[in-house]
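Chapter summary example.
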Amino acid sequence: MTDTTAAPVAAPVSPAATARALAEAARAVDAPDLVLAVSRNGVRTVHTGGSAEPGPVPRELMAYELGSASKPYAGLLLARLVAQGRVRYEDRAADLLAPGFPVHPAVRRITLRHLLTHTSGLPGLPADFYPQAVPRWSTDPYGGYPADRVVRAFLRARPRHRPGTRWHYSNFAVSVLGHTLAAATGTPWEVLLHQQVLAPLGLDATRVRPGPDGTDALGHRRDGTPVPALDTGGFTAAGAVRATPLDLLTFLEAHVGGAELTDPSLAGPLAEVRRPVLRRGWRHAHTHTLTWFHHPTPYGPVLFHAGATLGQQAFLGFRPGTGLAVAATATRRVHRADTFVATAYGLLTETR
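The structure predicted for these 352 residues follows.
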């Protein structure tokens, strides 16, 4: 697929106007801590707020749990390894994870591309995940399911659909991708991500584990009760990234185009993850890149991904070629009437 949508030329927007828009948007979100951050051609505007008293560390310098908004980092890592010739999108995951191990024929056909694009046929989570998770669903559902168990669940899986035929969002699949890349390169996932993505982009305040005391944002349930830091267990690649809003803007600015890259070898992978690769749904109305949701707007396509953990939410989005990027974080668990994602998405799609 190719993306031929052209964005109309937009009139410049002043930082003061952007600041007013962020302040207005913030009024729609109820959370103990809230950060709305916009970059326009590298000019940043950040609004912080929330119902909690500010702590000693400014909100924009706190590290927030990204949950599923971690997946674009996994996507960029895969694209970089492919560009380096270390793996191929069509490599079969089982062959890299456990060469010669007997698996179901459908599992044998699952490729790295299938895992990342949610077309592997795997369920959202392994079937045996739930018995151990349900008793601690609101405190630590993932911590008791380690990496070796994720891999074993994959090798004995029976996919619901033939790989490549249907789209089904799967934390299980992206987690398997992480373990497969670690096996293929002989490098732990956390080290691989740092070497290939975080360090080259200068993301010094991005990590996959909790940081020193006082540097991580504290999540809350809907009623305001604090929740412990997320332990993703063996599902690291699908949701373990933590980052400050300023680092999120740096990550997005690299994608949006126009910024000079410290490491020019990232240019190809960044272009690769922006390229639409599949359509799904009724009349194929939904478009996806390797790792981003892709929507048309009057101002050109937008690419975005949201995420949520037990007590936090995050939104990342950008408009390619326009210089506009939006990062948002909040420290309250998502609920049915929640306005956080809609508010952040509106900043990306309703403004020039």
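To summarize the output: The CA atoms of residues 188 and 320 lie 32 Å apart.
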